[in-house]
Amino acid sequence: MLQGTMKINSLGHLEVGGCDTVGLAKEFGTPLFVYDVALIRNQIRHFRSVFLKNQIRGQIAYAGKAFSSIAILQLILEEGMALDVVSGGELYTALKAGFPPEKIHFHGNNKSPGEISFALDSGIGYFIVDNFHELELLEELCRQKQKKVQILLRITPGVSAHTHHYILTGNEESKFGFSLLDGQAKEALQKVLDSDKIVCHGVHFHIGSQIFETDGFILSIERLFHHLVEWKEEWGFEPKIINAGGGFGIRYTNLDQPLDPEQFIQAIIDEIKKQSEQYGISFPEVWIEPGRSIVGEAGITLYTIGTRKDIPGVRTYLSVDGGMTDNLRPALYGAKYDALVANKALEVPEKMVTIAGRTCESGDILIENIPLAKTNPGDLLAVFATGAYGYAMANNYNRLPRPAVVFVENGKAKLVVKRETYEDLIRNDLPLYD
């Protein structure tokens, strides 16, 4: 499971970005999120290479919900990406990071009037419009502020990706977007075309997450073009942009066999070219929104191993100093991970163990039944591929402070998110009695 710059050094320790993880744990404490900056840069460049190879206009927008902080947003801006945000908080973070507002797209199925107003005042590039209520709010606020706004209509193509039902977003039952099949998308487009404040430049779809095949994208594009040709005939509408979303799968364990980023993007480009030629529709800009596939495999979490509980004939629990407060995904939808003992990385696995989190919940299990080397309290566990939706979903259950985040590159470690303190936990608390 070693990815990017990860390797085992001469001390038998896991090393990332030229930094010994044992040294990182001593300097910054645990739990600790560690990001391999070189791997993030490499992933972005893989995506970009497909657009360059095909010599087409396109845009790669980082889906900030995977992991948002000032440092990561500055890094992806440095690599030439645009950005998707899904809340006022994510937008605020992006602006504080110095992200150009015109390169920001605002997603979400229930944007508040305050968030929409904030985004309009900030001059963001695009709203990805999700529903009729949002269209009405945009129209009203644009009139109040005497502004025009650019949008993409989010449609649901009625395609179910092969993924967990919690992260399906393109099927008819999804809470997101205007349905193609029941006519909502057509009705929404007509409303936009009648507006003098809202300008529709294209359509967006997102069929799910952790996808391992291109079939869903191809089918979605086919279905979309069946409607685009109708919209062209009726209104002369041709999309300047088709945004195929993200959801490109990554490797969490050896059971996962994801495609290379280039394969996803090439399939999307090829199908849009094919359909454009078939229906006589001008070839649009192609946009994508990778998030997990940019940062997921670049992140690891370091934990200190604590107690051990042997239940003869049943299982052995190893408890660590984190859990569902820094990685909610196993408890939320049964996500699987791989790991090794970072300070004994060359030692042969001794037995099967289950990695338990430290919160007071029986369901706080990070990894079930993984072979590990013999451990002692104080050893260091590295859990791989935690770069997406780890820190992003981190919480203070049991009043546990959220971990620190460190970026490593070329043998140097940079603290980019400080570890919370106990004082941080009560910062917003108010006493009942003065």
Written account of the structure:
- The chain is of the alpha/beta class.
- It has 2 domains: 152 residues, Lyase, Ornithine Decarboxylase, Chain A, domain 1 (Beta Barrel), CATH 2.40.37; 259 residues, TIM Barrel (Alpha-Beta Barrel).
- 30% of the residues lie in helices and 24% in strands.
- α6 links the parallel β8 and β9.
Percentage of residues in DSSP E strands: 15-25%
Largest sheet: 9 strands, mixed
**Which topology of the largest domain does CATH recognise?**
TIM Barrel
- Any idea what the radius of gyration is? 23 Å
Could you list the spans in which at least 5 consecutive residues all have pLDDT below 50? 163-171
- Please give the share of residues in helix: 25-40%
What do we call the CATH homologous superfamily of the largest domain? Alanine racemase
Please state the second-level CATH architecture of the largest domain: Alpha-Beta Barrel
Number of domains: 2
| Strands, total number | 21
How would you state the average pLDDT, rounded? 95
The total of helices stands at 12
What is the highest CATH level, the class of the largest domain?
Alpha Beta
What structural category do the secondary elements indicate? alpha/beta
**Form type:** globular
How far is the N terminus from the C terminus? 54 Å
